[in-house]
Design a protein that fits this description.
Elements (H helix, E strand, L loop, with lengths): L1 H13 L1 H21 L14 H12 L9 E8 L7 H14 L5 E4 L14 E8 L8 H14 L4 E6 L13 H17 L2 H29 L3 H31 L4 H28 L7 H32 L23 H11 L1 H16 L7 E2 L11 H13 L7 E7 L7 H12 L4 E4 L3 E2 L5 E8 L6 H10 L2 H7 L1 E6 L1 H35 L3 H26 L15 E2 L2 H29 L4 H29 L6 H33 L8 H6 L8 H4 L7 H5 L31
Parallel strand pairs: 5-11
Antiparallel strand pairs: 1-3, 1-4, 2-3, 6-9, 6-10, 7-9, 8-9
Length: 758
């Protein structure tokens, strides 16, 4: 692998303008196609194979005139003084209903007084607006007309708000906070490299890669049904890995120049060594994200594949465009400069902070290990209380009209009116009348304490299917409502009515989605951990090191989930992190976080532990190898982690609850993985294991392929480092993130020794 990538790096360096032009052409081409592509559809939480989805399909088949895929809006009226049944209020509401029905895309608007959509105390009423087309095909003029009509209907006597998927109002702020994440990344890169031009290359390449990926997603949005959230998640992942991957290659290139290599040779060695680790790290992320397909949820599959494609673009840019741009920049990007450091009492250069920390851990491995595990364990405690759900108007900020409409309905009619259940009753033989069965179901459900009201059954034209609307007594996200859904699906209810009973509605779909994701989380976690174990056996040619990495990954994920539950579900520090309304955690967030954190955790494992193994293979003691690894790796891992955390955290300013939650979860998990697991637990465990950490049974050593991820064969080529080079004193400076000829980024897959370690 290292030899092939080295040749690719040299080719890109020599044909720099051609390579750069090809990437620019790709970007422009995608831009042209994206400009002609229709907008991305909204988030689709369909769940093939679930009862709620079966109920929806049956409704669409038996009640085609009430097909459930059209956009909807609920316009809520509340009288501030008096009642909505007063003459003046009735006149204003009637006029609003008339104007709403004038839109050409509106199928019908219900009259609150004709449909009895007036609260018992007469303070609140609502009209239901049904559109002929889905939300994704709703014209902007129709959305604007809806908003304008609501605004004009408001007065001192009448409060009017609107909710539903036909509304697109979002709070002010947008995605401007993402620029803050890039700004932090830029500052870290400038400090790391000590050069504005060198710092700009990773940012430029990350933005280019994200731009190409986002445009490609826009092009494929309509034919593949990719939602708007898909692009946001791909941007988040692409920026983080794109900057980090470019950072490793550029840093290694400057370190190679400092060793005296020519620029083309330095570019080849940088891509062959650091690029090897980038390819492996990217592969782990891609496998984890693509593996989300096995869960069987369309939107999760879309998110995983889109993000995986973005990572592939980031890897390709790192190993092709980066060396091309290094060639274009020429002498303007120079070798790593020595870093000024004070002297210790013995007159020797003062050791770096990474070395001092590693020595501290090696001297007290047991205490450090127990302290780190205890810290992560405490943070992970809230994860045991994880409750999952899907976003609704109740999760939107209080400043939005959707949230205000939700609250008005809850106050006037009861919390259950925001999440009614649709009970579909189908005759057992598929051909008889379902009216009797539906009336029996309605009568039995009507007597339950957790039910606020039950509507009259509505029969299909075929007479074999009926629909009964059931309004729960509790809020849609409440545990009592989920219990009601399960009770309505109980075999006893169906057998008592001699019919097939299905439950649909947004609340029922949320219950099914959350349950399916909850059931898939543990198997997927086991799959990811097992995959990590096998891949790291190949990388480190060891059993205990991969086992330690897998356990550390689990600790990172659990701690990250614990932090998410504490903030987004329990509401701890909610105002600090901009959480408008604590509640159940996004259903897709935990399993998506597992996939992403798996790949990122393996990144840091490779970048840090590869250099430790390299020192051990070259004859250092296990403890000295740990210290050597920190000497050359601590700063690059720190810089990469800070960049990734800042990028993920910036998405907490997003208007979409899904992006906000995932951004916080990933930032937390990376924080715990980089600074607790890899910087604390890893050196402590390796110090305790000693030589056993690097042992691989002979029979397994013969079976495990040697992919030369560390680039050992590359160093044997003409111009490779010699033993004299390795022993020569050298201080690479802040921009190389290390000291010595093996510079920090060498740990990003650039080891010089790659023996079996047995």
């Amino acid at each position: 692998m290292a030899t092939f990538l080295s040749r690719l790096g040299r080719f890109s360096f020599r044909r720099r303008w051609l390579v750069a032009l090809l990437w620019v052409v790709l970007l422009v081409g995608m831009g042209v196609l994206a400009g002609r592509a229709p907008a991305a559809p909204p988030n689709d939480f369909s769940m093939p194979g679930t009862e709620a989805q079966q109920a929806y399909d049956l409704l669409n088949e038996r009640f085609p005139e009430k097909k459930a895929d059209g956009a909807t809006a609920r316009v809520v009226f509340r009288a501030e003084d008096g009642k909505v049944t007063d003459p003046e209020a009735k006149k204003a509401i009637g006029e609003t209903v008339r104007v709403l029905g004038n839109d050409p895309q509106v199928a019908r608007v219900t009259d609150p007084y004709a449909t009895r959509s007036v609260s018992k105390d007469g303070s609140t009423a609502y009209a239901q607006v049904s559109y002929k087309v889905p939300s994704s095909k709703l014209e902007e003029s129709s959305r604007t007309a809806l908003q304008d009509t609501v605004k004009q209907a408001r007065s001192q006597e009448l409060t009017v708000e609107v909710g539903g998927n036909a509304v697109n109002e979002v709070p002010a702020g947008g995605h401007s906070s993402e620029a803050m994440g890039l700004a932090v990344a830029a500052v870290v890169l400038v400090i790391t490299f000590g050069s504005l031009l060198a710092a700009g290359l990773p940012l430029l390449n990350a933005i280019l890669g994200v731009g190409i990926s986002a445009l490609a997603i826009r092009v494929l949005a309509e034919p593949l049904g990719l939602s708007s959230t898909t692009s946001g998640l791909a941007t988040m992942i692409g920026l983080a890995v794109g900057i980090d991957y470019a950072l490793f290659v550029v840093s290694r290139y400057r370190a190679e120049l400092a060793h005296g290599r020519g620029r083309e040779q330095a570019a080849g060695h940088a891509v062959g060594t650091a690029g090897s680790a980038v390819v492996f790290a990217g592969l782990t992320v891609v496998i984890a994200l693509a593996g989300l397909c096995v869960v069987g949820i369309p939107i999760l599959t879309q998110m995983g594949l889109a993000a995986a494609g973005t990572v592939v673009i980031a890897v390709l840019i790192a190993v092709t465009l980066i060396p091309a741009l290094l060639g274009i920049c020429g002498r303007r990007i120079g070798p790593a400069r020595p870093r000024r450091r004070g002297t210790a009492k013995d007159g020797l250069p003062r050791p770096s902070m990474g070395v001092r920390w590693a020595r501290f851990v090696v001297r007290r491995p047991v205490a450090v290990l127990l302290g780190g595990v205890a810290l992560l364990g405490v943070i992970a405690v809230p994860a045991a209380s994880l409750k999952m759900g899907l976003p609704g108007d109740d999760s939107k900020p209080a400043s939005t009209t959707q949230r205000r409409a939700y609250d008005l309905v809850a106050e006037g009619f009861g919390p259950g009116f925001n999440g009614p259940l649709t009970v579909v009753v189908q005759a057992a033989d598929g051909s008889g009348s379902a009216r009797t069965a539906a009336e029996g179901v309605a009568e039995e459900v009507r007597g339950r304490k957790d039910v606020a009201s039950v509507g009259q059954p509505r029969l299909s034209e075929s007479g074999d299917t009926a629909v009964v609307n059931v309004v729960p007594a509790t809020a849609p996200a409440g545990a009592e409502t989920a219990d009601l859904v399960h009770a309505l699906r109980s075999p006893e209810l169906a057998s008592g009515s001699d019919a097939r009973v299905l439950v649909a509605g947004t609340t029922a779909m949320n219950v099914d989605v959350s349950q399916k994701l909850s059931d898939a989380l543990i198997p997927y976690l086991a799959l990811v951990v097992g995959l990590a174990f096998l891949l790291l056996i190949v990388v480190f040619r060891s059993l205990l090191v991969p086992l330690k990495a897998a356990v550390g990954f689990l600790l990172s994920v659990l701690a990250g989930l614990g932090a998410v539950v504490a903030v987004f579900q329990w509401g701890w520090l909610a105002s600090v992190f901009g959480v408008a309304e604590p509640g159940p955690v996004m259903s897709m967030m935990p399993i998506f976080m597992v996939g992403v954190v798996f790949g990122l955790a393996m990144d840091y494992e490779v970048f840090l532990v590869t250099r430790m193994r390299e020192g051990y293979v070259q004859g250092q003691t296990p403890s000295d190898a740990v210290i050597s690894g920190f000497e050359h790796s601590a700063r690059v891992v720190t810089a990469a982690a800070v960049i990734m955390i800042s990028v993920f955290a910036s998405f907490m300013g997003s208007d979409e609850q899904m992006l906000k939650t995932i951004g916080f979860g990933l930032a937390s998990a990376v924080l715990f993985d980089a600074f607790v697991v890899r910087m604390v637990l890893v050196p402590a465990v390796l110090a305790l294991l000693g030589r056993r950490a690097w042992h691989l049974p002979r029979w397994l050593d013969r079976l495990v392929p040697d992919l030369d991820i560390e680039g050992e064969r590359l160093e044997r080529e003409p111009g490779g480092l010699t033993a004299t080079d390795l022993e020569a004193p050298y201080d690479a400076g802040p921009d190389s993130v290390g000291r010595g000829p093996d510079s920090v980024v060498e740990t990003a897959g650039s080891g010089l020794g790659s023996g079996s370690g047995s």
